[in-house]
Amino acid sequence: MNNYKGDIIEESLSDKSVLKDINIISTKVEKVTNEHQTPWLLQWTLDTIEVEEGQASSLAEKLSKALDSDHGWYIDYRNDEYHFVIFKNKVFKIDRSKKSDYDEMIKYGLSVGTPDYQLPNFSDLPINVLDDFLREANLNTYANKNVKKASPLRPGSRDYHFEKGDLTYHDTYFGATKFVGEEIVYKNSKPAWGMNYYGFTVSNEISEGLFDAILRPALMSGSGDNIPVRGPKEFINGEWKYTFNTDGNLANFIGIEEISKNGEVICRLHCHGGFIE
């Protein structure tokens, strides 16, 4: 099921009883600054929510009625295909592949007093398209020992490059058993998505060659049901075990990768990334 995820600011609701029917994943209280342009509040309560696909439209109508009529508040949630943006008595179900849908919503939001910088913007790289592209790029760059490196873009860097259609992937990193790097996906030559990572061996006995010999097969096995930024959730090869755990999705995520030998962690990598706007 292609569920929706999004956020609700509780202070935007005139009728908070609607929250009892919503799957709230997490809640945090944030201090309001001048940049938020909400001087009537000192802080707000931000709920991260998940909405089942079949309930998205009906919930949008309920939330639209429950919103405060002042200050141009809105609520939004999205999945890979659609984006609901909900104002007081006005609901937009936006096709995420159509910029015109976003333009119409933004025009309305500005008319009811929502600050321009707060309104959702069109991203012409849907997550499902990015997902497919990254899975292919990953198997045609570092993970594949038969692929040649690209020309280095910076002094001392090692680089890999992959292109398909209007999308380009470039990975550049420095180091061997202690390394730092960055992956960028370009759409029509414009940076659209990226990831930063830092990896290191815990044991001084692990050489770069051995590290590659263990890591590359894990990455070449594919991401499975993981987000496609490293390897699968688990990969076992004899006495070696690879794991990669993530929090979030391709739009905004963090991850930890570990390689263990006979139950002892010998390599670890931290990464984070998401869309670039």
Enumerate how many helices there are, as a single number: 4
**Helix content estimate:** 10-25%
Low-pLDDT ranges: none
Structural domain tally: 2
The number of E-state strands comes to 14
Q: What about the largest sheet? A: 8 strands, antiparallel
Query: Overall mean pLDDT score?
Result: 90
Give the helices and strands as they follow along the chain: EEEHEEEHHEEEEHEEEE
Q: SS-based structural class?
A: alpha+beta
Spatial strand sequence of the major β-sheet: 7-8-9-10-14-13-12-11
Strand content: 35-45%
Shape: elongated
The radius of gyration over CA amounts to: 22 Å
Span of the ends, CA to CA: 28 Å
Features:
alpha+beta, eight-stranded antiparallel beta sheet, six-stranded antiparallel beta sheet
Model description:
This protein is α+β, with helices and mostly antiparallel strands. It folds into two domains: 4-118, no CATH class; 127-275, no CATH class. The chain contains four helices and 14 strands. The chain has helices spanning 56-66, 99-111, 127-138, 208-220; strands at 4-9, 23-31, 43-51, 75-78, 82-87, 90-95, 158-164, 167-175, 178-187, 190-201, 234-237, 240-249, 252-261, 264-275. An eight-stranded antiparallel β-sheet has the order 7-8-9-10-14-13-12-11, with helices on one face. A six-stranded antiparallel β-sheet has the order 2-3-1-4-5-6, with helices on both faces. A hairpin with a 2-residue loop joins strand 9 (178-187) and strand 10 (190-201). The two termini are 28 Å apart. The mean pLDDT is 90.
